[in-house]
Amino acid sequence: MADRPPPAGKLAIPPLATTAYTSKQPKKRKTDFSKRESKRESDNKRNKTRVNIGEAFQRWRDLRDCIGLTLDSELAALLLDSYEKIRGTSTRHKVGHIASLPYTEISCILTESLSDRDDDFSVAGVGELDTSDNEAASVQELDTSMTSLDLSADGINVEEFNDIRNSTIDWADDTLCHAEETESVSSLDEEDEEETGEVDSDEGSDADYIFPLCVRTGGALPSKSIRFDALPAISVEDTVHDSSDVGPTHTDAPEMPEALQAQSEDEVIGQPASIAYHLNLQLLAEYLLLPIPMCTAKDPVTNEVCQAPGPFRVTVKSRATAAIIEWTCPHGHIVWRWSSQSTLEYGMLIGDFMLAVNILLSGNNYAKVALLFKFMNMGMVGRSTFSKIQDTYCVDTIKEFWEEKRGEVISKLQPKASVVVLGDGRMDSPGFSAQYCTYSVMENASKEIISMVTVDKCKTAPNSVIMEKEAFTRTFDTIHQEIENLSEICTDAHSQIAALFTKGIYKSWGVKHTLDMWHGSKNLGKKIQQASEQKGCSILLIWSKDVCNHFWFCAKMSANYDDFFDMWVGILHHVTGEHEWALGACHHGPSSDNEDKEWIGKGSAAHRALTEIVLNARWLGEVVKYLGFRSTAELESFHNHILMYANKRFSFTPPVYSARTLLAGLDYNHHVHRPVQRKADGSIEYRKLFNKKSQKWSLYTTKVDKDYGYIPHLQRAILRSRTTADGGIATCEAR
Questions:
Q1: What is the pLDDT of residues 377-399, one digit of tens each?
Q2: Distance between CA atoms of 416 and 12, rounded to whole angstroms?
Q3: How far is 58 from 77, CA to CA, in rounded Å?
């Protein structure tokens, strides 16, 4: 077909290579379907001679202008010649230094469409200009095999046709557009193209194409007949990667590992974890090279493989507590996704699950931990997800774990001939607004907790006054059945509980009820303080401490009530300065008559008030319960330890509050027998603690640090309840 002169005012467009399809044929009318099929076939054939640089087109033009070239073919020739010079080395070169490289000729055939590539320069072998010797040898061998094809029958010089200097910038095809965009091409334009053999460079519909420009090899040559359908096919992998065989061979991309899913408890429990910043993760991900040659995603409309080569764009995102790294091709397809955490069944991240579990196990509060994570700008498991994990998997498992450990403690008490236990109740909030009451029972000899029962005020009608009695009743009924050799239980001086043993349901059960010495002394001090408020009795405040200490001494030294009474009434003589009397004498050593304290006058108002307290019938009737000299001080210390897990300033649901108190019991029992801390010379290490109430220092022996050895077993139990569940809860929320 003869070349036509260009219209006035327009530059000449080099004619396209004449193919069997575009050769002059008698004009005939076609149906819409046949036109679309003809257009698609023509585009597919023309696509084989195109090289698409996609989004890198602007960079291509900027580089051309920077170097000072005027034609795209000149820049392409320079880049390929520069690559041919250095392709035998593995040294990276920056684009800015390419212009200084020497010029050599190169011949390479490109018969496969590169419309899906989006490198810096979409020419075979030109990317970051980094190849190995093996890759260079493969490319040379491939070039030799391809140039050996006999195309002389068509009058074509292969090296001349594939020379980049004979290439032109052309419009890309629309095979990747949606169906409605393909059908929008005017049939009149097709007919005009068939009649004139020219392509209108001002076609407005080309601006809507995804990739509007490409490099077309052989476009600057005079049109000659080339039958591409007679040539063997070669894939993009063969032109870029290691392949020396001619034919439709394909290099299979390695299978990338999918997101890990925890298969066993050992993959979760005890595994170390770290804080990783996204900048560092992205630096690592960008430095590494994925073993994936190109994107394998398929277009949802055309079902064509993307085949966009690397390097891929790296992004780091947060999903709750995990970091997600995504490698994305230039067309927006996710080539691979990596997560910093494995997942459980149904997709929950292990870190989210274990964080929610360990917030509870460590006695922390969700709001405080969430605030910490916010200040650290870290992802956090959602509040609702935390609550669901806590209620669904943790609460019941903790109760089962506690019953198992409690059973071990109970079994150790069975061989004993007599078991003495201590009991006391704890309210969940200060004052008279308590919602829960936890009654704890401790074995007196081992100091281990053997029972914990929590009562909700809603279950007591609702009346917080009777919560401790209700909690004690449930506790005593249980331990009395479990411990057959239970002989004594010591509590504080709670009148409702004491009534259960004097005239209530436990009167005939054969268990002795005793009272705590510290509470007895405290009650005695309150009575003396109240009496001192009477007229002429203020001197009793001076002797209050001595009276309480005397009661403490009498209870400790007396074997029965008679011994106690003989020593106890001696305080009425001692406060008056009389240390010997007809029926006895003081048990203290010699004392001077000029003591610091003022003596109480015999028969005075103060002396009569003190006599009423010391000889009170109700008081003397309860004295026998103090003669065992029991103390619940260790149990009070345990109640203070519960604050670590269930602070009185926070509110919890009934199941969660009960679980938190049981966690305190597990912690206390596991560490109660820790050895004392010793110095380098072997001596015991002591610490002092200032008591604000008494304004005095107390001496304490320090113990070795806690190891929390039971926590991994409890974590395994909770994780097992999650992995064996029939279903899962909603995926953890992002922060």
A1: 999 999 999 999 999 999 999 99
A2: 110
A3: 18
Pairing of strands 486-491, 512-515: parallel
- Residues 233, 196: contact at Cβ < 8 Å? no
Query: Residue with structure tokens 């360990």?
Result: 358
Peptide bond into 291 cis (omega under 30): no
CA–CA dist 240, 131 (Å, integer): 10
For residue 351, pLDDT over 80 is answered with yes
CA dihedral (658, 664, 666, 669) positive or negative:
negative
480 — pLDDT class (breaks 50, 70, 90): very high
Quick count: other Cβ atoms within 10 Å of Cβ 155? 9
Name the amino acid, one letter, at 84: E
- Pair of tokens at residue 100: 């200084």
For the stretch 400-420, pLDDT in tens is 999 999 999 999 999 999 999
Q: In the beta sheet, which residues pair with residue 323?
A: 318
Are 320 and 382 a contacting pair, CB within 8 Å?
A: yes
Question: Structure tokens of 238?
Answer: 């063969």
- Is 442 strand, coil or helix? strand
Distance, in Å, from the CA atom of 660 to the CA atom of 113, rounded to the nearest integer, reads 66
DSSP output for 279-317:
HHHHHHHHHS--S--B---B-TTT--B---BSPPEEEEE
* 239 neighbors 124 (Cβ within 8 angstroms): yes
Give dist(CA 426, CA 658) in Å, integer: 12
405 close to 710: Cβ distance less than 8 angstroms: yes
